[in-house]
Design a protein that fits this description.
mainly alpha, two-stranded parallel sheet, UDP-glycosyltransferase 76B1, transferase, transferase activity
Length: 123
């Protein structure tokens, strides 16, 4: 006879699932940038202004999207880091560490500006 799982197991399972979700974020690789810009185009077509905060690493070309606003933040990567795609996990960790403060500073500056339009944020 199988023993029923108790509630603590379910709570632990849900907690692990939530922790895994928290760690998902957008990374600046081509397969992630293109869909983001496509979504930005759709949002722009609906009448909202869109601002994209990005780093030098694999950055989109702002002149290709004159209707979007781009803000460049430093990523703190050396040329050797950016060209070393064989250690992708280390590269992502470096970006996560190096970009926190520049991203927060840029976002703070943007939020201090006076907007007359609704703001939609995708983090």
């Amino acid at each position: 006879m199988k023993k029923k799982r108790t509630r603590p197991f379910m709570e632990k399972s849900t907690e692990i699932e939530l922790q895994q979700r928290k760690r998902r974020r957008q990374v600046p690789f081509q397969g992630h940038i293109n869909p983001t810009v496509q979504l930005a185009n759709i949002i722009d077509d609906r009448g909202f202004s869109v601002t994209i905060i990005h780093t030098h690493f694999n950055s989109p070309n702002p002149s290709d999207y004159p209707h979007l606003t781009f803000h460049l933040i430093p990523d703190g990567l050396l040329k050797s880091h950016a060209s070393s795609t064989d250690v992708i996990i280390a590269l992502i960790q470096l970006l996560n560490i190096n970009c926190v403060t520049p991203f927060q500073d840029c976002l703070s500056r943007l939020l201090l500006e006076v907007y007359e339009e609704p703001i939609i944020a995708k983090l």
